[in-house]
Amino acid sequence: MATGLLAILGFAGFWLSVVGYQRDRLDASQTTQQLGQGFTGTETKLNEGFADTETKLDDTRSEIEAIKRKLEQDELAKEGQYLGGTFLYEDPIEGVYSNFWTAYPIRSGSSPELTIRGEGKTVEFSGVIQLNCENGKYFWHSGNLFQEPLSTQEIGDLVPEQAVRAMVRIFCRF
Predict the structure, then answer these.
(1) Final residue belonging to a domain, choices 34, 62, 81
(2) Where in the sequence is the domain holding 98, given as residue range(s)?
(3) Mean pLDDT of all residues in the chain?
(4) Which of 26, 41, 69, 106: CA 20 to 30 A from 52?
(5) What was the pLDDT predicted at 152?
(6) How confident is the model at residue 117 (pLDDT cuts 50, 70, 90)?
């Protein structure tokens, strides 16, 4: 009987150790999952931090490009004044590339006549335009002196409206 009692106690002890082992494993598994979730949150926060940094870098790059364009525009305006031309408009193309539009007076008065030049990444244009300062309208005498002449419609598609408006504003004093 003592042997049977010892066997039962041994079996009960074994059973308790197996149950304890299983609980320890379960606790360890839950702790690992909790830690993993904590790391995922940390990684997400780190990724958000990197995204913020990337956004700030992009903003800084954009500001630098804007300053660079402004300096180029100022330099072009100085060159235009030196050459007797008047800077009209910078037409941004892509990234840091632009087309620059400059006017050179031929005749002044209430109907000034001007040569307009477009130079840059995607344009090489020179045309003669006459402005009517009484009503702000204009018409083209010729377009694209460097190559074959263009029609009025082709010139209108090529020359930005902002450049023409600047010309009217500057030379007609609107």
Answers:
(1) 81
(2) 83-171
(3) 77
(4) 69
(5) 79
(6) very high
